[in-house]
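Notes from the 1:1 (GR / supervisor)

We went over the backlog. Supervisor wanted to see one worked example end to end before approving the batch request, so GR pasted a single chain during the call. The sequence is below; no edits were made to it. Supervisor asked that the structure be written out right there so they could see what the output format looks like.
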Amino acid sequence: MTQQRMLSRSSYIIVICCIAAIGGFLFGFDSGVINGTVDGLQASFNSDSAGTGFNVASMLLGCAIGAFFAGRLADRFGRRTLLIVAAVFFLISAWGSGVAGSSMEFVIYRILGGLAVGAASVMTPAYISEVAPSAYRGRLATIQQVAIISGLFMAFLSNYVLANVAGSATSELWFGFATWRWMFWIELIPASVFLLALLFIPESPRYLISTGKQSEASRVLGLVMPEREVGTKIDEINATLDQDHKPRLSDVINRTTGKVHGIVWVGIGLAVFQQLVGINVVFYYGAVLWQSVGFSEGDALLINVISGAVSIGACLLAISLVDKIGRKPLLWMGSVGMAVTLTCMSYAFSTASMVDGSLGLSDDMGVLALLSANLYVLFFNASWGPVMWVMLGEMFPNQMRGSGLAIAGLFQWVANFGITMTFPIMLASIGLFGAYGLYAVCAVASVFFVIYFVKETRGKELEEMVYE
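Structure output shown during the call:
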């Protein structure tokens, strides 16, 4: 009977974590769908390279704002509540991005989508870490990255299928609407599922305790852990919270020194380095990147699908390893792998030459670039992709988890915006060789950051996380 209860409890935890992770799926889909619509946006809105870069990157402004305020608002209204709000924004953005008649209108809807992505990016790992047992919290938190990559993969796949059916992203598809518009509207399906499913999951018990709702927290904890341990866990959580005030942004400041706690700077470093290695250039501009060195639109979209499949496999590898060998080893090994593969990509692109008025790679260099790009994606998604979100969700003490996530999330999305916005400019000025060379340098720097500043969190209860 006891074993049956344990299995039932574990199944329940997995289900509610998977529902929360749909936010990660939409995060990935909303981020990846833009990849196949760039040509359609340029044709519809007559935008130049800078304008196209802003159309693509505009969502990231919303992401930065959404991540920052979601962390703070979640301390006031709850993790689940903010996820529900994000689901509504996903629906509005998906519809509006497809109906937009001007660049400005499109940017507004993409920023709304960005608010949803930003909120989901910090609330999903926070929610999962706060309901999952420490023994397999890493594996459950990694579901977030699996969901993100699955969303990216489905966006790439749907873009590829729709473009093939219509002939191109700019061709008319159904009911007289261009294919690129339908690429956005596909997102309405998972966004609706997310909104409905959220109505059936409980609020985070640690949030409930922080707001004085002890009886409700006791009920929720009884669903995710043995009832005999509930009272002790409530006492442990209460001991990590300041009794004189609810969690607030100022908790990131050390009251003794007046400086920001070191753990916050580590969180910022993790968030920023995840972007400085250039991964979202592959996610957002993959089709443009491969077309720029001679691949056709269809082949470029197919390469995106392959990269998405490789990413899912890499995330599954991370799930199997994150609670066995730990977070820190995965991070530094991933950094080394990315540094090597980015260097290989940079070298391959340095050999590109003009063929019939456009850039092209030799057969050997084309193979090197393609293999290196997919190995790079594999190393990222087996390490920094999932592990950064795992650590941000669990590394901060209870009192400052919302605030720490808000600040780290803000920096993560600002860095994402900077990388995404500058790539078209770098492509036109220093080329793919220079761009990927810069990302390789950042990957090397991230190795030393992990070795000297990141602390292992594997196997620790959230109540054991301390201020530094």
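Supervisor's comment: The chain has a mean pLDDT of 78.
Batch request approved.
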